[in-house]
Design a protein that fits this description.
Elements lengths: L1 E5 L8 H17 L4 H11 L3 H6 L8 H10 L7 H22 L1 H22 L11 H14 L4 E8 L2 E8 H19 L10 H14 L14
Antiparallel strand pairs: 1-2, 2-3
Length: about 230
């Protein structure tokens, strides 16, 4: 299922969300200008490697900067055009409404908290892994978790592929995002015990989603009724 839009009428331009998308695009454009060797160096330096995070607690000569910086920089690196475009589509669809609900500055802090939190959850479920993880999906999962709490009845226009045909349906957010979360959790459970394997960081998605949902629980009662188109 590919989300295309949500039926929430927003009153303000989601400037922070737009800037985050632009930052991810610019970072990726820089990535593709690098040689393969320099690209690998970039990923291993600024991507999140669980084994490196553990070294902080093992009296290893690793600086706090070397361990902490990747928690942030890994959010702006992507492994290819599909990886980037998929993440940015989800951020575009769900981020604007969450930003309007939280406010610009609070949304920016929220985004980074979800990104760092999801990275720590990924680390906890992949102890000892030397495979670097990159991508904004952990932070974006937090945005989606917030959306399902703030706007559970919103309709998500979703593109559904069926063999060689495509059609769109309008699905309640709690069903679309609930199904998405179930797939992430199920896949995460299935991946337990698989170390040093590449692929999708399922537990980063699960952790980010739950963290985002929890962080906005107190926001919903204070919001004015959302306007739906």
């Amino acid at each position: 299922m590919i989300p295309l839009r949500v039926d929430i009428l927003r009153l303000r331009v989601a400037m922070i969300n737009i800037l985050l998308i632009l930052a991810n695009i610019l970072a990726f454009l820089h990535e593709i200008t690098l040689s393969p060797k320099m690209g690998r160096t970039l990923v291993y330096t600024f991507g999140l490697t669980p084994a490196h995070e553990q070294l902080l607690f093992a009296r290893h000569p690793i600086t706090i900067g070397q361990a902490i910086l990747p928690l942030f920089t890994s959010m702006f690196l992507h492994g290819g055009w599909l990886h980037l475009l998929g993440n940015m589509l989800f951020l575009w669809v769900f981020g604007g409404a969450v930003e309007e609900a939280l406010g610009h500055f609070q949304y920016l802090i929220f985004y980074f908290v979800c990104g760092v939190g999801s990275a720590l959850v990924h680390t906890a479920f992949n102890l000892g892994s030397k495979v670097p993880t990159i991508g904004a999906s952990g932070a974006i999962s937090g945005v989606m978790g917030a959306f399902i709490v703030l706007f559970p009845r919103a309709r998500v226009t979703t593109l559904i592929p069926a063999l060689l045909l495509f059609f769109t349906v309008r699905i309640p957010a709690y069903l679309m995002l609930g199904y998405w979360f179930f797939l992430q959790f199920f896949s995460g459970v299935a991946s337990l015990g698989m170390t040093d394997q590449g692929g999708v960081a399922w537990w980063a998605h699960v952790g980010g989603f739950l963290l985002g949902a929890v962080l906005v629980v107190g926001v919903r009662p204070k919001m004015r009724s959302a306007a739906y188109t």
